[in-house]
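agent> Task received from the user: take the single chain below, predict its 3D structure, and emit structure tokens. No templates, no multimer pairing.
agent> Plan: (1) validate residues, (2) run structure prediction, (3) serialize to tokens, (4) report one or two observations.
agent> Step 1 OK, no nonstandard residues flagged.
tool_call: predict_structure(input=
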Amino acid sequence: MSREHSGAVVVGVDGSRSATDAVAWAAAEAASTGAPLRLVAALGPPPARPVEEGEPREVAARHVVVSARAALDMAAEQATRVHPGLDVDTQTRDGFAVPVLLDESRHASLLVTGNRGLGGVPGLLLGSVSMSVAAKADCAVVVVRGVPGHSGDDRPVVVGVDGSARSDPALELAFAKAAERGAPLLAVHTWSDQLLVELGPIVDFDAINADERRLLSERLAGWREKYPDVEVRTLVRRARPAEALLELSATAQLLVVGSRGRGRVSGLLLGSVGHALLHLAECPVLIARS
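)
tool_result: status=success, residues=290
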């Protein structure tokens, strides 16, 4: 399979338990969509690899490659055992994990990472690799957290909607994933403004909530028509986006948000809301790309 034109579901593999969960989720995703699965291990540049006292550097480098190949072989066996016939490609690549995975994202349909790795050069740590990839990748990114769900799971796919056209990439993916899984879709729109809260008695919060419901309904209309078989539920709440979405993640199979929103009032910004979700959500988080 050609990496340059694969359109594959790509997974970063480092042999950790978190990466194992990511491979399981990605394999199910590839099997359900018909996409190939690509497993990638980043070796790190040779000069940065630690060498034990008295051990030649080339021997240490071979150990790194052998370890990476073993992790990839185990991951491939794991994927094909559960999904026989799945098109699986494995690759070791020189370089640190972040630039390697970002390069892979240029040609992937979806990039999947665990939320915590082994640490060190090839580790997939949320604070470094997963967060950097989620923020900068050219394709949609899934960070696997909590209890992954897939076909047959009756938990909803939850999507955060800020009411602007910037929500469309997240809505498109959320509707597609709900359709693939035969799952209901819960579209969540939050609104809050500290100034309005302080004005309190002179503000008609019911009227504002009704306006926000209309805004959400308008944003969903076209997607409902495109996916008529998807059961759509809506939730409009006066709350901070991260708080509402984190609460709902406890009963969701997948949480979908955009990589950039409108800002303070109801925006879904990767730097704030996305950051909180990637660290604390209780289900896999999908960051959509424009």
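agent> Step 4: summary for the user.
The longest helix spans residues 57-82.
agent> Done.
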